[in-house]
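Cross-check.
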Amino acid sequence: MANQFHLEMLLQGPDSWNEWRRNNSGVRPDLREANLLNADLSRAVLDGADLRGSDLSKAQLSHASLHGANLEGATLSLADLLGAVLNEANLCGASFFGALLFGTRLKTANLSGANLLGSTLMGADLSGADLSGAHLMGANFHEANLEDANLEGANLTAALLVGTRIEGARFVNCSVHGISAWNLDGEAAVQQGLCVTPKGEPRILVDSLEHAIFVNLLLDTRQMRDLVAGACGNVALCVGRRRSDSLNLLPELMRLLSEEGYLPILFDVDHSFVKKGLEMLKTLGKFSKLLIADLTGILSGAAILGQLSEAAPHLFIQPLVRPSGKSVESGSLNPQGRLHPLIEYQSREELFRRLDLQSLCRSEEP
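Predicted model, tokenized:
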């Protein structure tokens, strides 16, 4: 619970509070679980304050200073933090639903698991911030600074990144369905495992924000599919089950395909792969030149490839399987048309020794 004296001093207003802070610089304000709903704390000096679990919903915190403050689990929904300073603050699990963070400084702040659903972060400085596992659905990062930020596991569904600085940022295993990312500044350190499909649908993953936008348009916009039909000769599909990929082959295949000049797309055949998943795969197959399918752990792998070969007869298909976990018989896949013979492998080294990726990518007929 909050120190009652500290809370009463703060509620007297920013001027009285700031004077008290100047006269008591060695005291760390204890405002744990304080009820500060609708409080006017504009320009208040709250550096280093303990505000864990406090309710700052709809609070006026414009140009307030909370450098190094501890706001773990705090609620700041619809709060006004225009130009506020929260550098090095602990905001783990805090809720900023609909908050205004225009020009807010959050350098090296801990925002892991924080809820920033629908928040406005235009021009905010999040350089070096930890946004791992953060809920950023519909957040506006227009001209924000995400340099060296960690966004691993963040949900960026329908987020807006326009003119955003991403130099050195980490985008790993993020949800990016419906994201808008244009005129990005700098190069991210890592972009990997970005899921372009919404929760509950078959998982389709790419390794760059630009590719995510492209795939979203292909899947959701018929006019775009008609426009690029026949013009996308550099798309390569990797199909497999990530949970069965104990050798971590699929990300390596995507990297190698990228080096060959392809736009690699990973289609994760998980429990949600039903009729809709097959239709999505057929759609992507029509815009692709090459498909490499690891059938390990996929019960209906042969049937999937058979239907895909019929839907996209131009598509080169290379099936793979690890015998210890295979779910298809070698004879159930008959090489025909552009369907290559099944490659069985026991180890990572054996697969890449037998899989001549360069020849496969350049082949015109199997």
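The CA atoms of residues 138 and 159 lie 4 Å apart. The first helix runs from residue 4 to 10. Passed to J.P. for a second look.
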